[in-house]
Design brief:
The structure is a homodimer. Chain A is of the alpha/beta class. Chain A is 38% helix and 24% strand. Chain A is globular.
């Protein structure tokens, strides 16, 4: 089944202990759609400027990603510059130029309307809500957000949460959103805000899914409970940019590729999310994911199983 | 097979967001031996003062722990006072009174000499080494240490590492010991110092075992690789004191209880370690572990499997 994703398509200048890249293709919708494209059809809604050319288009087209919903606007594309010199787990932002994103009005192509899965990547919650409302019939909606929206745009974000099935955020964001420093208590509070499932990403320690009422795993196992997927211990993290979006793409892409949502497919989806996140950080920007094969993905899935399973 | 453990038996005054306890029974050897006692015979080498009475003895005896190696010395037992008010992951030490521990000379009772497993809990590496050398014929030796010894007693600690099969430390300690901020690179460096297996404890994110040449899992799988055990997401952490020692006790106790060391028993041992750590933090000091039943342990083992396994 097809996924429609709305989010940023951008240029990133990135510095890490492994080196520096100028204006590489980035943005949450880019990382998400490339990762998800290994599992299912993906359709992107975004806006880019006049600096988005055939070379960038080709990255999406090579992966059969539908980009008719990427609008071209006069001006420059969203630009982000950041570094991870002190801490690979947290970017230090130097420049955020919204550019054409400042006046983005998402438009949904007719050809996208039969998408059964919708992913609201990290953008202004007002825009996330607008896309959610324009696609009321989707089967499953997941979304992401960040500390900026939690801190300064909470009312708009709370409206978005009401329309989500699954929220994917990191530890700090979950605790900040709930105003609670205990992760389990925070997860329960976030689930009370709308999503029946909360996936908390722990960076190098993997991710935990918390299931509330209405979640796929709740109906099978009852009660509030959890599932943990590991991250791969890596000898070198070249660039963490897009790891979370790649996780989301692997997770949601695998779910959308399955005929039925069961607790087992959900668990496998968490592992595929971790697998895609582990590839993403191996090279700068989208370099590694652009290069990937399905066989490499499935080999690493087996490695993740060996890393965690008793037998 | 029996485990001999050398380490501290102490009194702890602890403050956490959940409350405060004065002078509860603690110390690394106490937490370790109580946790391990659910799996195998445990024999303790330590020193206590005149304040160690029948009430404390009874805690060990109830769990059939051999305490003939706990020496009584004139003076007071080791005393530690600390709090976790700001951060449940890191204790703030207010008072450390070594007392009788300052002049501790470990003596090994004859009845302990046939122990096949030896655990060197976190004490002065000079003492760890002395006990290790006095028991050259043990089958498997594991040990723990802490930032204080890594920072200020490194030469003595390096001598201990040469005699260890398995070292259990936390992320910060592993990185500090190796002088390397990447965990995998740090693990390789630590393994080069002696132990063929390094277990890095991640607190609320579980623990990772790294296997080098000579380790049980290396011989089965070849190459440097890893295994990750989760921690249980807990709604309330009452007191983290002793969680790491309880992990070590569950891990090493289970290993010692098995007829053969295989990669599968090692993996199960990691899970039992996490299980015992998860119980330890549910109440103050040793309260929860004193109260535990084997059925509770095995039920939680099943929960850990559900938390991590695909099917």
């Amino acid at each position: 089944m097809a996924i429609t994703v709305v989010g940023s398509v951008a240029y990133d200048s990135i510095e890490t202990p492994a080196g520096r890249r100028e204006r590489c293709l980035g943005g949450a919708a880019t990382h998400f759609s490339l990762a998800a494209s290994f599992f299912t059809d993906v359709r992107v809604i975004a806006v880019v400027g006049e600096d988005f050319g055939p070379e960038q288009e080709a990255v999406f087209k090579k992966r059969n990603i539908d980009i008719q919903g990427i609008e071209r606007a006069p001006g420059k594309s969203f630009f982000w510059e950041g570094s991870y010199l002190d801490n690979l787990n947290e970017a230090k932002t130097h420049i955020t130029d919204l550019n054409v994103f400042a006046s983005f009005e998402p438009k949904i192509p007719d050809a996208y309307r039969d998408s059964e899965f919708l992913f609201l990547a990290n953008i202004d919650p007002v825009l996330q809500r607008r896309v959610r409302e324009a696609m009321p019939d989707v089967k499953l909606v997941a979304g992401d957000t960040m500390n900026y929206w939690i801190k300064d745009h909470k009312p708009a974000l709370l409206e978005v949460l009401k329309g989500l099935d699954i929220l994917l955020i990191n530890d700090t964001e979950a605790k900040m959103l709930a105003g609670n420093n205990n992760l389990v208590q925070a997860a329960k509070a976030v689930i009370d805000m709308g999503p029946h499932t909360l996936i908390v990403k722990h960076g190098e320690y993997g991710a935990t899914a918390f299931f509330g009422k209405g979640s796929i795993s709740h109906s099978a196992h009852g009660d509030f409970h959890a599932f943990r997927a590991p991250a791969l211990p890596l000898e070198e993290v070249v660039d963490p940019t897009g790891a979370g979006d790649s996780f989301a793409g692997g997770f949601f892409g695998y779910l959308a590729s399955q005929p039925e949502l069961t607790p087992a497919t959900f668990r496998r989806a968490m592992f595929y999310g971790s697998v895609m996140g582990s590839f993403a950080v191996e090279r700068f920007g989208t370099e590694r994911i652009q290069d990937l094969t399905r066989k490499e993905i499935d080999d690493r899935f087996i490695l993740f199983r060996e890393l965690t399973h008793l037998d």
